[in-house]
Amino acid sequence: MVSLNVIGACVMAVVEALSLPRSIQDSSKTTSFRHTLSIETAAKSVTTDYLGQIYLIDETEITKYSSTGVLISSFSDKNAGSITSVDASNPLRVQVFYQDFGQIIYLDDVLTVIGSKISLLDQGLDQATLSCSSWDDGIWLYDPQDFELKRLGNDLRLSHQSGNINQLVGIELNPNYIIEKNQYVYLNDPLTGILVFDQFGTYYKTLPITGIDRFQVSGEHVFYLKDNQLMSYGLKTLQHAALSISSDEEVILDLRFERESKLLILLKEKELELLVIKD
Question: Strand ranges (DSSP E) for 135-278?
Answer without folding.
Answer: 138-143, 148-152, 158-161, 177-181, 184-189, 193-198, 203-207, 216-218, 221-226, 229-234, 240-244, 252-258, 263-268, 271-278
